[in-house]
Specification:
mainly alpha
Length: 454
């Protein structure tokens, strides 16, 4: 506890000037305790409780207190909670007071600019955004874009949104705002693919909310694992595996995370690793089902049938496993082109570190695409792009497979990796198809100020 309080004090001291007045130790200690409690609640997504924790323990704002690091940190936390709870009108006076007490603190300016955007005070927000250091501006590109659009600079705002999505093409809200920006620019037909993409992500956003609910209920590991599953369904296998491993660090005995990781290992042609993990788990019908899938992936049909039948002995009502047994008994010895592709890749990859398997994975993706397994191929090339960001063949495969209009930001994201004349030319072409200045999109992606083109 003492170490944690010292850490909170250290964090608060970042926003302090070396010349601030001395403060009574009891007051500082009290502020640290309140901040610590609020941070703990916020970490578990209990935002309203975190805000109430602060507001029930502090009196009216006294700006002289803001010279002291613990009180300034506490009031900043109060303001950010108000923002996250969609109460920007109450956050602005706090942030303006903090700004007067601590001029030049870019973090406070960033919070204030966000609050002003939410209050539709766009013309006030734009100069604040544009005075921020690039790192802070990069963290709120969507809000910066909304400020530009709201102040009449619609084309510039669209360029900033494009930069934000080129930086992170999985930024869900960005597609909605970009589509709306195109509509505002009089381009409703061009907007439709992006609005459709946003609507198609409704299931993913619902799963994200379910993950938040688990974390709200103090089931942090389960929430992280639920988020990993949502990422996998969205095609982000690399990020899903990172989240499954994070869930296991939070709760080493979380069996569901092991099963999910095993299935993803099978997907990336590592069934032998999946089998190793599964054999360490207690035998139950779920473990046996995934073990059967791993056996299938290695071509061990007899082993797969044995695992599935053992699962059915535990629970005869497992309809999906029963159907799989029937299918294997009927056709299991006939060549399955997809299974053969995966087995071939697994054999070539066996014993090699994953980082040295890029060519094999790309060959597998190419084969899957040739068999019209486009979604699987897309997932696999995205995995390779995260595994080996500078690999030019991975970029080429992304450009081929992500060929729909709404995939443009995945293409722009991929084109930033290889620093070649060909990649820069293609980036420029993609941006111009959106009727945007390529340099403006690049500048926005890098967190730079977009100079007015209007």
């Amino acid at each position: 506890m003492i170490a944690r309080r010292l850490a909170v004090l250290s964090a608060a001291a970042v926003i302090a000037s070396s010349s601030c007045d001395a403060q009574r130790p009891a007051d500082a200690e009290r502020a640290v305790e309140v901040l610590e409690g609020a941070n703990d609640l916020a970490r578990r997504h209990r935002l309203a409780e975190a805000l109430e924790h602060i507001e029930s323990r502090v009196g009216p704002l006294d700006e002289s207190d803001l010279r002291h690091p613990p009180h300034a940190a506490l009031r900043e936390r109060q303001a950010t909670l108000l923002l996250r709870l969609s109460r920007p009108g109450e956050a602005v006076p706090l942030l303006e007071a903090l700004r007067r007490a601590r001029p030049g603190e870019s973090r406070i300016d960033l919070h204030l600019a966000r609050a002003l955007v939410e209050l539709d005070r766009h013309e006030e927000a734009v100069p604040i955004f544009e005075r921020l250091p690039g790192a802070e501006r990069s963290s709120e590109l969507v809000s910066y874009a909304m400020a530009l659009i709201g102040s009449g600079r619609k084309r510039d705002g669209a360029a900033v949104l494009a930069g934000a999505l080129a930086r992170d093409p999985w930024l869900e809200e960005g597609y909605l705002h970009f589509g709306r920006a195109l509509v505002a620019l009089g381009e409703p037909a061009a907007a439709e693919p992006f609005l459709r993409h946003y609507r198609a992500g409704e299931e993913f956003r619902r799963q994200e909310q379910e993950a938040l609910q688990l974390e709200f209920g103090s089931q942090e590991a389960e929430g992280t694992n639920a988020r990993a599953r949502a990422l996998a369904r969205r095609g982000r296998i690399f990020d899903a595996m990172l989240h499954h491993n994070l869930a296991l660090r939070k709760k080493p005995g979380l069996g569901a995370a092991y099963l999910d990781l095993a299935r993803l290992s099978i997907f990336i042609a590592r069934p032998d690793q999946a089998e190793q993990v599964l054999r360490t788990l207690p035998r139950n019908e779920q473990v046996l089902e995934v073990l059967g899938e791993a056996h299938e992936a290695t071509g061990n049909i007899e082993g797969a049938l044995a695992s599935y039948r053992a699962a059915l002995e535990m629970d005869a009502g497992l309809e999906s496993i029963g159907k799989r047994v029937e299918a294997l008994e009927a056709t299991g010895r006939e060549p399955d082109p997809v299974a053969e592709l995966r087995r071939s890749a697994a054999q070539r990859m066996r014993g090699k570190p994953l980082s040295q398997c890029v060519d094999e994975l790309l060959d597998l993706a190419r084969g899957l695409a040739s068999l019209d397994r486009i979604d699987d191929a897309r997932k696999l090339v995205l995995f390779v792009a995260r595994l080996a960001p500078e690999h030019e063949e991975a970029t080429r495969r992304i450009l081929e497979l992500f060929d729909r209009p709404e995939d443009v930001f995945v293409r722009l994201w991929a084109l930033e990796r290889p620093d070649t004349p060909e990649a820069r030319t293609r980036f420029d072409s993609e941006a111009r198809r959106l009727e945007l200045d390529p340099d403006a999109v690049r500048d926005a992606r890098a967190g730079k100020v977009v100079r007015s083109s209007e």
